[in-house]
C-alpha cells in the first residue's frame, strides 16, 4: 500500500495536483474575496439593523394599552403586538423591546441606538426632521383627565390651573400652543403625572384618550373632561433617517396587517368599546370615524 502510493505514476500526480489547485482557487473565490463577502453580508442585513436578524425597538414600559410591561416584565400592548406581527411578515422573529423615557426615544433611534421606535408616536413635521416614519397605523384623541371636584369641562376651565404633560409628547406641544394661560408641569411618564394629579400637585393631566380611559377606570375620582381630535398626527413607527428600504418593508407589512383584518382584531382586543378610526380597516369595511363622548 505505502509503496504503491509513494511511487504513483507522474501523470496521476500531475492530475491530482491540478485538481488541488483548482479546488484551492475555488475556495479563494468563494471565501477570500472581499467583494463577495461584503455582498453576502449586505444581503443578510438589508435593512442595516444593529444586529443582523434582530430588530431592536425603543419603546415605553408604562404607556398602557399601547406599550407596557406585564407582571413578568415582558412588553405587551397594541403597538407591541402589531409591530411584532409586521416584523414577522417581513421575515423577523427576533424583536427586542427596551423601555425608554419618551423625551429621549426619538433621539435614540436617530443615533442608531435602536432600529425603530414603537410607542404610539404621533407623526409631525417637527419629528420628521429627526427621524423617518412608516405610514400611520393609529389615530385618536388627546384627552384632559381631571379630578371631578375641580370642575374642568372645557379648555377655558384650564386657565390658571396646573396641567401635567409628558415631556416631548403631542400633548405638550398642543398645550403650549392652545392653553397659554395654563401652567404646564412636565413629567417623564403618565404614571408620574397621574400620581401628581391624585396628590393634588396638578389639577389635570393631558394624555391620550385610551390611557385616560384606563386611568379613569382605575381611579373613580377622575373624569375624562376634554377630548380633542388628533387625526392629523397618526402614530407611526420611527426609523433613523435614510433607511428607506426598511421603511418600505414596514409599510408593506403594515398594510397587509390592515387589509387581512389583523389590525382590527388587535384594536378590538386592546381598545374594547372605543371608537374605531376605520381608515385602517380592510378597504371594504371603511365607513366613517365616530367621536368619543366627553
Based on secondary structure, the structural category is: alpha/beta
Number of DSSP strands? 13
Radius of gyration: 27 Å
Largest sheet: 5 strands, mixed
- Unreliable spans are 1-41
Roughly what is the average pLDDT, rounded to an integer?
A: 85
Strand order of the largest sheet: 5-1-6-13-7
Instruction: Choose one word for the global shape.
Output: globular
Which SSEs are present, and which pair or pack?
Blueprint: H1 2-6, H2 10-32, H3 34-44, E1 54-59, E2 62-63, E3 67-69, E4 75-76, H4 78-89, E5 94-99, H5 102-110, E6 116-122, E7 132-133, E8 141-147, E9 162-166, H6 170-178, E10 183-187, H7 190-199, E11 204-208, H8 209-218, E12 222-229, E13 235-239, H9 244-259, H10 262-270
Parallel strand pairs: 1-5, 1-6, 9-10, 9-11
Antiparallel strand pairs: 2-3, 3-4, 6-13, 7-13, 8-11, 8-12
Amino acid at each position: 500500500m505505502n509503496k504503491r502510493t509513494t511511487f504513483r505514476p507522474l501523470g496521476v500526480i500531475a492530475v491530482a495536483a491540478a485538481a488541488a489547485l483548482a479546488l484551492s482557487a475555488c475556495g479563494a473565490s468563494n471565501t477570500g474575496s472581499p467583494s463577495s463577502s461584503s455582498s453576502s453580508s449586505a444581503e443578510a442585513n438589508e435593512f442595516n439593523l444593529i444586529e443582523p436578524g434582530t430588530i431592536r425597538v425603543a419603546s415605553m414600559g408604562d404607556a398602557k394599552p399601547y406599550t407596557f410591561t406585564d407582571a413578568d416584565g415582558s412588553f405587551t400592548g397594541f403597538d407591541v403586538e402589531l409591530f411584532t406581527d409586521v416584523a414577522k411578515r417581513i421575515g423577523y422573529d427576533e424583536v427586542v423591546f427596551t423601555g425608554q423615557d419618551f423625551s429621549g426615544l426619538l433621539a435614540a433611534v436617530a443615533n442608531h441606538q435602536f432600529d425603530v421606535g414603537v410607542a404610539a408616536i404621533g407623526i409631525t413635521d417637527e419629528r420628521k426632521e429627526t427621524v423617518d416614519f412608516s405610514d400611520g397605523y393609529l389615530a385618536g384623541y388627546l384627552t384632559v383627565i381631571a379630578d371631578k371636584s375641580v370642575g374642568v369641562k372645557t379648555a377655558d376651565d384650564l386657565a390658571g390651573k396646573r396641567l401635567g404633560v409628558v415631556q416631548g409628547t403631542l400633548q405638550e406641544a398642543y398645550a403650549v400652543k392652545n392653553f397659554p394661560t395654563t401652567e404646564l408641569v412636565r413629567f417623564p411618564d403618565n404614571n408620574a403625572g397621574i400620581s401628581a394629579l391624585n396628590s393634588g400637585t396638578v389639577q389635570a393631566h393631558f394624555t391620550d384618550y385610551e390611557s385616560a380611559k384606563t386611568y379613569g377606570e382605575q381611579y373613580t375620582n377622575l373624569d375624562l373632561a376634554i377630548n380633542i381630535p388628533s387625526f392629523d398626527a397618526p402614530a407611526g413607527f420611527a426609523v433613523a433617517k435614510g433607511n428607506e428600504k426598511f421603511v418600505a418593508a414596514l409599510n408593506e407589512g403594515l398594510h397587509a396587517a390592515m387589509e387581512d383584518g389583523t389590525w382590527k382584531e388587535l384594536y378590538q382586543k386592546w381598545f374594547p368599546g372605543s371608537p374605531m378610526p376605520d381608515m385602517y380597516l380592510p378597504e371594504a369595511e371603511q365607513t366613517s370615524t365616530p367621536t368619543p363622548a366627553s
